[in-house]
Description:
By secondary structure, chain A is mostly helical. Chain A has 18 helices and no strands. The radius of gyration of chain A is 20 Å and the shape is globular.
Amino acid sequence: MKDFFNRIKRTFLIFLIVIGPGLITAFADNDAGGVATYSVAASKYGYKILTILIPITVVLAVTQEIGARIAIVTGKGLGDLIRERFGIKISLFVFSVVFIVNFGVILQDLSGLKGSLQLFQLDYRIFLPLVLLALFFVVIKSNYSKIERFFLFLILFYLTYFFSAVMAKPDWNLALKSMIIPPGKVSFDYLYTSIAVLGTTVTIWGQFFINSVVKDKKLTIDNLKYEKWEVYFSSILSDIATWFIMLAVIGTIYKNHVVIQGAEDAALAIKPFAGELAGVLFGVGLFVAGFLGCAIVPLATAYAFSEFFGYSGSLDSDFKKSRLFYSLFIVQIVIGFIIVFQQGFSLFKFTLIADFVNGISLPLIFYFLYSLSNNEHIMGKYKNTKTQNVLLVGSGIIISLGSILGILGKLLNF
Amino acid sequence: MIYFSEIKGKKVVTEDKIEVGRLEDFIFLASVNPKVTKIVIRNKQKKDLIIFFNDIKKLNNKITIGKAFNTVDLDENELYIGKNLLDKQIIDLVGDKIIRVNDVALQERTLLNKFELYVAGVDIGLLGILRWLRLDKIGLSFYKILNIVLKLKKGPKFLSWADIQPLELARGKVVLKKEEKKLERIRPEDLANYLEKTNIANVKRILRILDEKTSTEVIGNLNINYQSSLIQHFKPEKSAKIISLLDPVEAVDILLVLPRRKREQIMEFVVKEKKLQLEELINFSKTAIGDALTTEYLTASSNMTVREVINKIKKETAEFYQIDYVYILNEKQELIGVVNLHELIMQDLDTQIFKFMSHDIIVIHLTTPEEIAIKKMLKYKLYALPVIDKEKRLLGIVTFDNIADFLCHKV
Lengths: 414, 411
């Protein structure tokens, strides 16, 4: 019996060592853009939208695990492997896609940050630059393990959504049931919305980021087993957070048929129904989500760039050594900031395009994941299992079909 | 110099015009002498065939190989350019990432009618990436504008093979070596090329590190100005040692450029038999080449295209008795390369000269005896030799016809 407890204790301790990459990536998937999409989706479809959470969790867990496994086995990032296996032309193409899609997400996150500042009556013209300067300072000045701890600390703030959900008093029974029972008749718009939710949870940058971050954390092959569970555990945990975000909206906005266009609207609209505090908590959550996204998505681009083109790029190196890496990180945010700073900048149309590009590009990245993780030369005995392949290929096909159908329907409707 | 990106994917046909496939990769010896030994052809069934590089008959727009070629396997110590070198991460001695290999540069050498390719180094610049997209010309003109406007000195970024550790390459890593101790492992020709770009003090410092045999080889590969100034800098004993290790024809050529007193000092230290041999050759210098010199030659600059050079030939050489070679000069009017007419005609009209010109120029001097000039012509199978001065400027050429009289006389 004592042995058993010792073993559990040991496993738990190792688990604490590996924890980080999966959790940070999974929670950054719930960035400000994510919160906006979840809010809009939940306000439109209510409990019905909860059905897609379990499939999304599976896709997220499977793809992230493959990414983490590739990084641990090869010690290389996704960008490294694509460049070395597929050559320069394909690398240039993939990097352009990653850059454009990520920039779209950065704009979403920056405007999420701006919106959350406005919620608290803080002048974004003063506070947004301050927040971003703080962000630069944290990312450039600290090494990987410090940044990891900082991010993990930020993730605690996602608890705010739990409290806003409780205050929103949704029908818990129906909320649980809807996760398993399909919604019945499905419209084009529902399909489109589902793909948008999936596209903001399972992201291109997430695939690159988990790879690079596992590599930067220098996990070894002994950690493989634990890292797998870390990724699974994180995917579930982050989708539970998604569930709470949606419930906070469903219990208030959906129930009272309010139309919202974004996360800031949601935070404001929650207040009359669930009380001032619930709205404030939702707003704090949005701020943290925006901050996390603004840190991680540009980092994912910078990581991808240094991998594709072979420049030094690691959170552990100083600014001088990884100049291009950090410069690219800063430049993306600065350009995004200039765009978002414009008073009249409307994200609504833009989000649509960004999500669409992300959605149709995902199968492309899945193809690379598939081809790399099934290559005996690269993976040795750590190749994909049959189940993993079926899930990966299956979700790739469903996402492509879904995004094409969804967009077609959307275009025909408008 | 050619780039791997320019050759990869070229059609491979046999001499009787049967298409075999497309060039997929080169295989080379991962050693100090990185010679391309085999080529990989991907046929229409996507299968890879490996054949000897020697089976290549012609390499221009298409690659023509002999009818009876055999497929072979990879040997120990052989690596692929595409698979093992291209796109790989370059790291320095400490393990820090520098950049990736964007393209691989290959150096042609023609030795006794045998055409050979060597890995010269790797392209690590933006132009290396653009070349794969066939956008390198645009990139180059962009750099030109940038350099003029912003007074930058941007251009191709290149890493010599001599800077890469072959051993690590086999393990999938491109590791730099940046210690002078390791210079010995570099091919003497490459080292000579490298040394010519630095100053004499530097050259002396590096030659001191090398053992005698390597340093002699390196000196043998330097151009004559460097050779003579080195020998002037060295003590007579050391110079004598180097002189006696060189090919006598080359040795005399160097000795004759030196002032008479210095030459005699050095000769005192040369062993007897060698000394006699050299003195005999020096005596020929009384019939130096000066009289046989002709100015009927054509020069071009290295960035001209084949089309421009051919036009120049038509315009300027109408009155010539004969023309075999076009000599290539740089902006300082130094002789830096040579092409023969056959090579010129075989190239695309828009190809720039520097891409295919030969850098290994066999030259003589005003002091060179006719005997030695003829020996050089026969040894390297050349119809004409350029005569240069100490600043590497072209003074004229000596053709086989010019000195045929001398030969007749001897017979």
